[in-house]
Amino acid sequence: MNHKLKHTEQIKSFVRELGFDFCGIARAQRLEEDARRLEQWLQQGLHGNMQYMENYFDLRIDPTKLVPGAQSVITVLLNYFPQQQQTSGTPRISKYAYGADYHEVIKKKLHTLLALINEHIGEVQGRGFVDSAPVLERSWAQRSGLGWIGKNGNLITKQQGSFFFIATLIVDLELEYDDPIAKDYCGSCRRCIDACPTGAISEGKVINGSQCISYYTIELKDLLLPDDKKGQFADWMFGCDVCQDVCPWNRFAQPTRETGFTPIPEILNFTTKEWESLTEEAFKKIFRHSPLKRAKFQGIQRNVRFLKG
Fold it and tell me: Which helix (H) or strand (E) is 103 found in, with range?
């Protein structure tokens, strides 16, 4: 067995041991086509007030600028589809935020993965990323054969749909590379486009981030949400899953095996009144390890008032 194949098989074995659901590997190279699409998307202002999307453009499209001498991009997927669902009639929260902050859960696994590579293969330089640095994770997932980019902008797998976190480990180690999925299995389906409450999804896989409910309820830091959006949020208080919930491929979704994503009981059961009466002290205590921290207490209260009004 050649060294590249042996190392590749070792790494994929480590990934399975760490509890990741899927792994694909692509050659580290500049993403020319993605660069053109990203530049056009930014020029159209579809990122709204998310100014950070404009930063580090060169780093987003070229992994060798993040890890000098980078040879391979290892992409892993971790399922977050919950076993339990929220009580009906409560303010709705995106499924990815039911449990612990995925950054904390996945970063530990990536650090362990790099440590295992260094222990069993040799000294390898690398950096792990999970949605907190300028890396185009979905593009790398598609390039490494894990799925395709759906019309809703999400990575979709044939095996289990799209309820996955995507993380990457960029290393200066040459490996065997997986073939990309060239076909788009969305076909003529447009359920996500038709179902989006705010019309944020357009033909051609163009997502207007500045119109997405997730943008309004998480990213936007204004004290008030726009009056012209009242009645359009479909009770979503933090994030939105509509475009994934209606996707036919998600009929194959399986409950996550990751204990870190066990739902926080209050997220499943809090009524509107309980969210309204929540104190900042209680919020910080209950949700100290939750993605809800991103919106902060003031943001959650703003969102609750908006839905009620």
Answer: helix 102-120
Max CA pair span of the chain: 65
Residue with tokens 């943001």: 299
| 92 φ, ψ (degrees, to nearest 5) | -90, 145
- Residue (of 26, 90, 106, 81) closest to 235 by Cα position: 90
Structure tokens at 145: 């054969």
How many residues are recorded in the chain?
309
* pTM for this predicted structure: 0.92
Contact (Cβ atoms closer than 8 angstroms) between residue 93 and residue 137 = no
**Beta strand 236-238 pairing with 92-93:** parallel
What was the pLDDT predicted at 209? 85
pLDDT in tens, 55-96: 555 666 788 888 999 999 999 999 999 999 999 999 999 999
Residues 6 or more apart from 85 whose CB is under 8 A from it? 268
Distance between CA atoms of residues 250 and 244, nearest Å? 7
Tokens of 186: 């969305």
Question: First CA to last CA across the chain, in angstroms?
Answer: 65
Catalytic residues: 131
